[in-house]
Write a structure and sequence with these properties.
Length: 82
């Protein structure tokens, strides 16, 4: 999973800017205090809220790219949120 071009999401007073690469063979944890944007980040990867700018890729497939107007519906992504 990779987030490119600094994925930017705004929700109320939260302004989240994230860039990351996660190795498919590893485990990634998202940690932080209440209100830091952990759930917003996970929902963004799952395709639930649209974000302002950036790009999300999974195994080389583009799930979302705001510069190109691409967005893959949540039910078509191999991403889950529990």
């Amino acid at each position: 999973m990779s987030l490119r071009d600094d994925v930017t999401v705004r929700r109320g007073g939260l302004h989240l800017v994230v860039s990351l690469n996660a190795d498919a063979r590893g485990i990634m944890a998202v940690l932080g205090p209440n209100g830091a944007g952990k759930t917003t980040l996970l929902r963004t990867l799952a395709g639930l809220p649209e974000f302002e700018s950036g790009r999300v890729e999974l195994d080389g497939a583009v799930l979302e790219d705001t510069a190109r107007g691409l967005w893959l519906a949540p039910e078509k992504r191999s991403v889950g949120l529990a």
